[in-house]
Model the fold of this input.
Amino acid sequence: MTPAPPAALFAGLVDDAAVFPPGQAPLPRALAEHHEHRAAWYAAMVGPLLVPASGVGELVTLAGGTPVGVVVVARPGTPAAGVSAALDATHGTALDVRGVEIGWQADWRSLPFADRPLVLEIPRGADRDRALADVRDGQQEGHAVQAKLRTGATSTWEWPDELELARHITDVVQLGISTKLTGGLHHVVRGDHDSGPQHGLLDVLVAVDTAITDALAPDTDRLAEILGERDPAVLAAAVRSWDADRTDRVRRTLTAYGCCGVTDPITELAELDLVAGAA
Done:
């Protein structure tokens, strides 16, 4: 039997984004299914429930006294007051807020919740490089902050192709910062799904590893080629060769990603014998 990579490679990797597009599960169903995930054989691979700031009040009521690990998410442009109100609503409840995800803004250090773990969504355009450098500065100052890139297309966000994602990976490695991804990573291998292109989880992991290995001589074009790989056997063989140290350095760079279909990538990983499935 071929060896599997260290279990730590996939530990807490998939944040539960069930209530977000394209899944858009109603919050009651999302919470019920999240509890099922937390009790399933793959529980160790599932991160917190991502909840929009506007849904925190409802979630408090739904959760009752049952503990739930959550991350409060606000799309870029959401007023800080709304996020603060959502966080205030969790005080004394069963919700365990693990962090806050917002759009990058130059004054994020002055936000009333800046003492919490923050994930800042990096914009495109003129502010991109500034935002990434700002995250680096924030980490060096001791803030628990990391960058986020949207890897799935929306009505206002064009799908980032292999070269754009490769540049993001190259830059976060060169800056020495950690990153999260969100959207479009429902499958483990690059392909065309649901009438559109989607990046593959294994492609991303192998690209991150390559960027770290080649940090002294970064080659963005090479990373783009890896991100375009569509042969699962090639990618699976690569991650099977990793030891604990190599796994740890990859996960320190890519900490997690949000997926509205939590079991989609996990099922495919099990089919490739990269994780131990249900007995």
In short: The chain has a mean pLDDT of 95.
